[in-house]
Amino acid sequence: MNYVSARQYFYQEIQQVDENIDLAKAALYIATEEYPDLDCDEYLNALDTMAFELQERLPDTRYPMRVVKCINEYLYRDLGFAGNTENYYDPRNSFLNDVIERRLGIPITLALVYLEVARRIDFPMVGVGMPGHFLIRPDIPDMDIYIDTFHEGEILFPQDCELRLSQIYQQPVQLQPEHLPRVTKAQFLIRLLSNLKHIYLNKQELELALAAVERILLVAPDSIIDTRDRGLLSYQLGRFTQATQDLETYLYRTPDARDASVIRRLLLKLKG
Prior knowledge:
This is Protein SirB1 N-terminal domain-containing protein. By secondary structure, the protein is mainly alpha-helical. It has twelve helices and seven strands.
């Protein structure tokens, strides 16, 4: 699959109603721009196989906590999935095919594997965007537990999340619903692509950073920060028409932005 086809398939996938988006397919279309010869069906079949093997191990009585423990044992003990603590910012941690092959990932991609396997065994789970981390939880009424996929499926209760937030903010935090928001599938993909964007920016791989930003804007066309960033990256890559358009849009929508004076000077340079 070539670059253009991968982008088209990604766009088609995200045009659906959010609940109908296939996260695994969308993530593999993201990876295909990096790996043009990637066979998406191979990795979808790998997830199917995991789910089939897990189904054979499930207890007869499918109490949610027992199912979670069974998934944890299968993914982390038997298959050896783990958080990549040694090279967290390796781009491969953000590509689903690499995560499945290497058994290494970051919170959001390990969550993706977990969510997709759980979905295939009809155990509903959703992403949770805790500040500074990414969790998942069973989508079951009155079941207030969270799963840390980066730490071998550690089960967290609300008080555990509160403690973690206090550590993140370095001051006591009283847990509020907004600390643990449910993440839509579109938000999930934006978060995945934002990870890639920042990784590539730090590596000064501007073409790849721009590709990530372009796909974020397919999911969230109104993201003004990403519109600005597309403009800045386009400027650095010599694509001055796109840069001018995006930076003018940014100033029009956020005339009082903290970086407005910098952007105005850049636009003067572009037009001069």
